[in-house]
Design brief:
Layout lengths: L2 H4 L11 H17 L4 H7 L7 H7 L7 E2 L2 E2 L3 H14 L1 H21 L2 H12 L5 E4 L15 E5 L2 E12 L6 E8 L2 E8 L5 E5 L11 E11 L12 H35 L1 E2 L2 E2 L4 H29 L5 H25 L11 H13 L4 H13 L6
Parallel strand pairs: 3-6
Antiparallel strand pairs: 1-2, 4-5, 5-9, 6-7, 8-9, 10-11
Helix pairs in contact: 2-5, 5-6, 5-8, 6-7, 6-8, 8-9, 8-10, 8-11, 9-10, 10-11, 10-12
The chain binds flavin-adenine dinucleotide.
């Protein structure tokens, strides 16, 4: 049994259709050629490879689960395996694709006017235009309904004021989907780069997601025309529905990160010798490897099950919380355990394990923290809301 097969001990991928299998293989090959040889350097220098964006467009993964306007129209499982293979390389790469497809293109596709779709979606699918999603603010994170960013009418125009924080792709984005409070409730606005009063500042000194751009958005009397608002949704339902799309990608993506950590630990344990034999021969190491493999395969099964529910149009937000809670938590545990198997080498960037572990700390927090998803499930089970 090869280490690659050991990562899929239950043969979960047997359930993939031909097209989904092709997507997985194509993305895996792309990542092997374009990302793996460079990722360590990008991570250490703290840069996102902007030049890769048109390549991702050609690969067909940007907004791939959407239909029309240049999008690939893949199944949910197809989108999932793409996220998995991207995050097997680095969570920052999957974050770029999640934000572009699920958080920026999805709201335009779902709630935008025909004109807005025509203007933005084909270029975003091709990787010629980048989008970002501004919901979180300096004082509004887990409780996004407490946002302060506002949009008021001035004649036919809208005028936006506020700040958004921790925004993936913010400094790269040609268009920001900004959620703001209006007299009618929260609404989404398309803010093109270069609009007077709209500036971005990249956040540095990150110990996690270093190969990803994370920025602050500043909106200072930003005047937008009437048609900058997304006409199709009012209220928190808008941003929350986008987050459900992106969380689905995370449920799959982290399986890739965990698989890389597990495979690295397994192959290391087979060759590293102490006390005259491979450390894989020690029972305590075997227990770690088995626990990692069991959780990895369970996470893969869960991702697949949720993918099938999504393709059947039956996936609920609580089930997505279930997947995000379990799979991120277990991926992080796998990464940390893999780190111990590698001993001192585990802290070196020569191996991918600590990079994944550090990235997964962000994944544990963004798109709803572990605690918030626990409370969502607590509410689903008890009918009692612990967080409002
Ligand atoms: P807080 O909400 O202040 O939470 C702090 C701690 O308190 C957490 O452990 C939390 O679980 C806990 N807590 C809060 N409320 C409760 C409660 N009721 N019960 C129990 N515990 C609670 N946001 C965007 O809008 N767009 C993006 O593109 C984006 N990208 C990101 C990229 C990165 C790398 C990171 C790190 C964050 C990103 N975020 C983005 C922001 C992210 O969504 C928020 O960080 C997240 O929602 C948590 O908010 P917070 O950091 O303000 O933490």
């Amino acid at each position: 049994r090869t280490t690659a097969r050991a990562g899929d001990l239950l043969d979960v991928d047997r359930a993939l259709g031909d097209e989904e299998r092709l997507i997985a293989e194509t993305v895996r090959r792309f990542v092997g050629e374009h990302v793996l040889p460079e990722i360590e350097g990008w991570y250490e220098r703290g840069v996102f490879p902007r030049e890769l964006v048109p390549e991702l467009g050609r690969l067909g993964v940007l907004g791939m689960h959407l239909t029309g306007h240049g999008c690939a129209g893949a199944s949910a499982v197809g989108y999932g395996v793409a996220c998995r293979e991207l995050e097997a390389a680095d969570s920052g790469l999957r974050s770029f694709v999640s934000v572009q497809g699920s958080l920026a293109m999805f709201p335009i596709w779902r709630y935008g006017s025909e004109e807005q779709k025509r203007r933005w979606l084909p270029g975003m699918a091709a990787g010629e235009l980048v989008g970002c999603f501004g919901l979180t603010e300096p004082d509004s994170g887990s409780d996004p309904a407490s946002m302060r960013t506002s949009a008021r009418r001035d004649g036919r125009d809208w005028v936006l004021n506020g700040r958004k924080m921790w925004i993936t792709n913010g400094g790269l984005a040609d268009v920001a989907v900004v959620w703001a409070r209006t007299d009618d409730g929260v609404r989404g606005f398309l803010v093109p780069r270069g609009t007077p009063g709209f500036t971005t500042r990249d956040i540095h000194r990150k110990m996690s997601m270093r190969a990803s751009v994370t920025s602050e958005l500043v909106l200072d009397d930003v005047r937008l025309p009437e048609d900058a608002v997304l006409p199709g949704v009012v209220g928190m339902r808008g941003p929350l529905s986008c987050l459900d799309e992106a969380r689905f990608g995370i449920v799959w993506g982290v399986v890739g990160a965990a698989r890389t950590c597990f495979e690295t630990a397994l192959s290391y344990a087979r060759t590293r010798e102490q006390f005259g034999r491979p450390i894989a021969g020690f029972q305590l190491t075997q227990q770690k490897l088995v626990d990692m493999a069991v959780e990895l395969n369970k996470a893969a099964l869960l991702a697949h099950h949720l993918g099938q529910l999504k393709d059947a149009g039956a996936l609920t937000p609580e089930q997505i919380s279930f997947g995000k809670l379990n799979n991120v938590r277990e991926a992080l545990r796998i990464a940390r355990t893999a780190r111990t198997v590698l001993g001192a080498n585990g802290i070196s960037s020569e191996y991918p394990v600590m990079r994944h572990a550090n990235n997964l700390e962000s994944v544990l927090t963004y798109e709803g923290t572990n605690e918030v998803h626990t409370l969502v499930l607590g509410h689903a089970l008890t009918g009692l809301r612990a967080f409002q």
